[in-house]
């Protein structure tokens, strides 16, 4: 898997959003959002980092806003990012179902 560097502020924001969402519903979050899911989400963000910087720079993380922005620019995504988008959607749907989607 191609891994791109993720900026420290974005990594901290993503981790903070996941932690904050987990704290809102602790028992459900523990059961539904595993460390593996968090790690996979971070890996997917790394793959799409350049696309985010180029196409969605002003979009605030949380609530699926970055994913929605990337979808709006689907025809402009790098091949690597386009390939991981279906899995990113699955992770988003899992977070929504578990009620732990960052706001």
What does this structure look like?
This protein has helices spanning 8-24, 26-32, 35-47, 49-55, 65-72, 79-98. By secondary structure, the protein is mainly α. It has one domain (8-96). The radius of gyration is 13 Å and the shape is globular.
Quick rundown:
The protein is mostly helical.
Radius of gyration: 13 Å
Which ranges are low-confidence, i.e. pLDDT below 50, for 5 or more consecutive residues?
15-31
Count of separate structural domains: 1
Class by helix and strand content? mainly alpha
Order of helices and strands: HHHHHH
Largest sheet entry: none
Shape: globular
Number of helices: 6
Helix content: 55-70%
Compute the number of strand runs: 0
Strand residues, percent: under 5%
- For the record, give the distance between the C-alpha atoms at the N and C termini, rounded to a whole number: 29 Å
Mean pLDDT: 76
Please write out the topology:
Elements: H1 8-24, H2 26-32, H3 35-47, H4 49-55, H5 65-72, H6 79-98
Keywords:
0% strand, globular, mainly alpha
